[in-house]
Amino acid sequence: MRYLAWLIICAAGFAQEFRGTLLGRVTDPSGAVVPGVSITAIQLETNVSTNTRTNEEGIYRIPFLPPGDYRVVVEHPGFKRIERTRVRVSVASEVSLDFTLEVAAAAETLTVTAEAPLLNTASAELGQVVPSAYFDKLPVSLTRNAINRVMLSAVVTGDTGTYTSNAQSSFSVAGGGSTRGNNEVMVDGIPNTIARSSGIIVFVPTLDAIEEMKVHVTLFDAAYGHSNAGAVNITTKGGTNELRGTIYDYKRWRALNANSWSNNRLGLPRPPVNYNQFGLLASGPLYLPRLYDGRNRTFFSFSFETDRDARDLSRQARVPTELERKGDFSQTINRLGTGLLQIYDPLTTTGTGSSAQRTPFPGARIPASRLNPTGAAVAQAYPLPNQSVPTQIGRYNWAATGIYEVIQRQVSLRADHVLSQRQRMFGRISRLTRNQQADEFFRGVRAFPAEGTSDLGVDRRFFYSVALDDTVTFSPTMVASFRYGFSNRYAPRSNPGVLPDPSALSLPSIILQNQTIKGWPIFELGENFATLGSTAAVDRFYTHTGLATLYKFLGKHSLKFGVDYRLNRWNNRDPGSSAAGSFSFNSTFTQSNPFVRTAADTSGTSLASLLLGIPASGSLGYNSPLSVQNHYFAGFVQEEWRALPRLTLTLGLRWEFETPYTERYNRVTYGFDFDAPSPVKVPGLDLRGGVLFAGVDGNPRREGNLDTNNFGPRFGFALSLDRRTVIRGGYGLFYAAQAYQTSFVGAIATFNATTPYVGTIDNGATPYTTLANPFPNGLRQPEGNAKRLAARYGDSLTVYNQYRVNPYNQQWQLSIQRELPGLLLAEAAYMGMLSLKQLESFNLNEKPDRYLALGAAENDRVPNPFYGLFDPTSSLGAGTTIPQGRLWPRYPQYTSLTLEGNNTGKAIYHSLQLRLDKRFSHGFTFLWSYAFSKLIDNNTTSIVNERHYRCVSEYDVRHVMRLGANYELPFGPGRAWGSSLRGVWGRLVEGWTLSAWVNGRSGYPLSISHANGRPIRLRNAAKSGPVRERLGDRVDPATKRVLNPYFDIDAFAPLPNQYTVPPEPPYFDELRSPRSIGRNLALYKDVKIRERFRLQIRAEATNFTNSPSWGSPGTNMSNQATFGVIQSGGGGRSMQMGARLTY
């Protein structure tokens, strides 16, 4: 007992159970309860038994049963012995089995072959168990990523993962209502996600190594927490009493695939993709000849898998033409397509405000003497155009097909051991490695093409996962489980190929001598130009977890107690995007008026600014390493009360406490003092506010205050109306994990040394400096916390709100299940979720609306009150004059002040969910699910005009439908067709199964943007008709106007200028991206070779109809070349062949 007390108090922490429970009531023929009845559950494949007895209410409960098939034996003197076979216990589920004893005249045994119950009569939660019939047979995706099977539930939204290790931010259990990536993913009861904002999954077992998986849509058990109220539970296979093995190989190659719509449109060939997946699984009893026979006692399971995946990297972008590289824009069409482009000289600005004007370069040609060597060298790095399209700003004129190759290997070993009838243990250790290498489109320079995935380069990842469990039965009424887990991710990233020599760009010595990584600076142009540059990083995350859970059974009540602890650590060495330098360019310095940019103004381009060597912004920086950690504690109590034979009630309470992050050397901020007098006295200004650093001046070492008031009540009920109908409902309050709510953006702001490039000190009228001397005032050095409140004066600041608390969700559901003839289960459910105190980011220096009427007057120059007081390398300390608008915000000492972690976000979610589950019979099984839902939120970045942000969420998916089905074709001996066939023909036609997967959803809401702000909606912009007729691929040759846009592009009018408050919400309910329907098909044949050898050959195809999955249309109204135009059509049909041998 001292061991038990120590573990509960000290360690143990993750109470989210992955095993199943067998429970029920035993009565005699008169209906009276029978206490003291022996109940034994024997796992069929291991012969391991678990025994308990009914209590004084005739109730029994056997928790912590590994998923699998069991034989349940019921024994009591004077009554027949009952054996119920093939009882299926699923992952994280409760199976209710009631028994009625019969009086025995002699020793008799009553044997009943059981079907797993269809109805869930013991739990109030909504969820979907993914059985093996669907798990390894449905063609959900060719990559065979187990996480993709969560899509069997229609309330899971998002996209499927590509690889075994994949960020789970791409999907959202429970349909949204809160932050994506905040769903718990567990493997063998151990949390399996990295504690950061994207919730990266550490380890996903191979399909053949998984016993079962469950998607938790609602969680009304207080044992579950640290989640949005949704979770995914995976349990791996253990060994059995028989030696078993599986070996498989899957292959995909170019000849089997159809080309994508996008490639066909661009005239590109099918990419040379290749995919090969090889793996094996071996399991059985541990047997050492003459030393140890582990049958019925010790078991092992070993899995290995390697993937080699060469994937399509077809991309398109805007690149400079031969003339444009020389500064000649005389043949370039402007962004609106209304005429030729005009380029203006930034050194000729006269006038101010709306009357300002520049002199154009004659003939739109920049003189060779004005070309900056660095800018010209960067322009030469781009490939030449290869598309026969008009030379227009913003229009793609280059496309290429390539590959990026991922090589991934994983190995996992699990051991189970029965110490005694009362104690069982298991352990698992898993390792996964991944190496990604991308094509070097631009000679080794890291490229972020405007069309397609970004962040491509050398990406190596190393994952480790450990799980240990000890289950002890102290008595028939008391059972405990203790668990420890460890998850680790190590990920170094760098450029593709060898880093290019930065000296080839004629960069000044101040950059070459102070780069943290040696490579090209990042050059970002916009206007669909590909971004070039060098970057590298390495980080490591790991989590220690543990568990102590204690069951106590008292009469009709079952009590469960537990504690929860987790230690998260993150070590990061990310030099940052400006480690080699970073420069952004736009059209401001080459447009006709630097102060006013109207919708009709088509002058200027970022490429011309690059050639002149005049960035709009930039920086060169050093990022400090970071080593942070936080702790998570929780305790819970859960009661299950079988109030009536047909009514089960559950009531629980969970308390959660998660500390803010601390950093080993206090390189973090505690928060922000909103009203502290400034230590820097500026004449004429009453400056207030400043940074509060952790660990100094009496401030705590952590980022923010402690939030200890996180109590989450849970309630649920299950009422059986009759043997075939059950009504279930529940309510729960869930606190989001703080670890997933922060991305550490403000952790080390002043411990870095980032020197901003000051492009202008007269608000864009003329350039302050060029790439020839980008940092004339020198470079900054890390200042740490030395300046205290005055830190970051003169520059932007991002800091966390120390008063933030954990966001929470209130979730409820009411559902009805009905068992129909033909082993068919029908379910209808209503589920709602209210999300409160969601975290948002605000710029506290957003100008109030009263200043909007002054318009461009904000750019009028006034004497700079900060000159000589702030660091001369800062944005506000560099010049003697300053735009007067800089002095209007509440905190004028900062160029911008972003406050993260404001508990102002809200969301409301409602859904109707329908499900049909056909249990396997007559060779056929299917699972159909549908969700009709709506998600509204008010997530905003504005503190001035928040009212304009409440609208349908960007993650709202109104309709989702999924269908998975397996059908054993009725051909061959003993079947409906070909029953008389024998010999070779009989073997040839028998054993075929057809498997289908259909995944359909409606589109996501669209957000329309413009350079002046969100435009005005004049009318409903949605258009009907086939998408193929609304691609935007037809253009009037005279006016360059898009003739067939996806939506009505004339339904929007731009704001007159950037000083008008946008009256429209960010997203429109009626205007959505194209719907998506995936249709996958598989055909496989099972061949019996010998008594214990079976071979399966398999052919499967995703998108077997070869239908484009249309991307979203262009939504930037300022770019008329792509506004309302669909540029991508998803991948074409992909086929895969495979073989699988089992023993």
Describe, in plain words, how this protein is organized in 3D.
The structure is a single chain. The protein is mainly beta. It has nine helices and 59 strands. It has a 22-stranded antiparallel beta barrel. A five-stranded mixed sheet has the order 3-2-5-6-9, with no helix packed on it.
Strand and helix layout:
Blueprint: H1 2-10, E1 20-27, E2 38-43, E3 49-53, E4 59-65, E5 68-75, E6 81-89, E7 94-96, E8 99-100, E9 109-113, E10 127-130, H2 132-135, E11 157-158, E12 171-172, E13 184-187, E14 190-191, E15 210-216, E16 231-236, E17 244-253, H3 261-266, E18 274-285, E19 287-288, E20 292-293, E21 298-312, E22 315-317, H4 322-325, H5 373-381, E23 398-400, E24 403-420, E25 423-438, E26 446-448, E27 458-475, E28 478-494, H6 509-512, E29 522-524, E30 531-533, E31 537-554, E32 557-573, E33 582-584, H7 606-612, E34 617-622, E35 626-644, E36 647-658, E37 662-663, E38 669-677, E39 688-693, E40 711-722, E41 725-735, H8 738-741, E42 753-757, E43 797-800, E44 808-820, E45 824-843, E46 861-863, E47 881-883, E48 897-921, E49 924-937, E50 951-952, E51 959-968, H9 983-989, E52 992-1001, E53 1005-1006, E54 1016-1017, E55 1052-1053, E56 1068-1072, E57 1076-1088, E58 1094-1102, E59 1134-1142
Parallel strand pairs: 1-7, 1-8, 6-9, 13-16, 29-33, 43-48
Antiparallel strand pairs: 1-4, 2-3, 2-5, 5-6, 10-15, 11-12, 13-14, 15-16, 17-18, 17-59, 18-21, 19-20, 21-24, 22-23, 24-25, 25-27, 26-30, 27-28, 28-31, 31-32, 32-35, 33-34, 34-42, 35-36, 35-37, 36-40, 38-39, 40-41, 41-44, 44-45, 45-48, 46-47, 48-49, 49-50, 49-51, 51-52, 52-57, 53-56, 54-55, 57-58, ...
Helix pairs in contact: 5-7
